Amino acid sequence: MFSGEQEVAVMGGPAGSAPMKNAVINIQTENPGRDHIVWSLFNTLFMNICCLGFVAFDYSVESKDQKMVGDITGAQSHASTAKCLNVWALVLGLLLTITFI
Fold first, then answer.
1. Which of 24, 27, 90, 101 has the largest CB neighbor count within 10 A?
2. For residue 95, what are the CA distances in angstroms to 38, 43, 89, 90?
3. What keywords tag this UniProt record (predicted)?
4. pTM for the whole structure
């Protein structure tokens, strides 16, 4: 016998007397998406119409926290809300800037 075969027999390899147990590990490869934190920070600093930029920044931070915890659904929900608020802050900020000019 080879030394490798002896080690397997000693370590409790496939001796046939004990049933083998299998373990299944599910690894999530799903990308939770973006949290839009940089865009929210930009809108907070420069286009903070009706505090929409600040509220978007808050939702972005919440999205990042949810992503770190592993709550993918919550992270996507907060990121979607942050994106919507960022769009509104940007559009209203640009319209207000163009109106003043």
1. 90
2. 21, 14, 10, 9
3. Membrane, Transmembrane, Transmembrane helix
4. 0.66
**Which residues, at least 6 apart from 14, have a Cβ–Cβ distance to it below 8 Å?**
8, 20
Q: Largest alpha-carbon pair distance within the chain?
A: 89
pLDDT digits (tens, 9 = 90+) for 29-45: 566 678 889 999 999 99
Amino acid identity, residue 91?
V
Distance CA 18, CA 20 (A): 6
Per the rule left: phi > 0, alpha: psi between -120 and 50, beta: everything else, 39 is: alpha
How many residues are given for the chain? 101
- Report the half-sphere exposure of 24 (CA within 13 A, side-chain side): 2
DSSP tag of 49: G
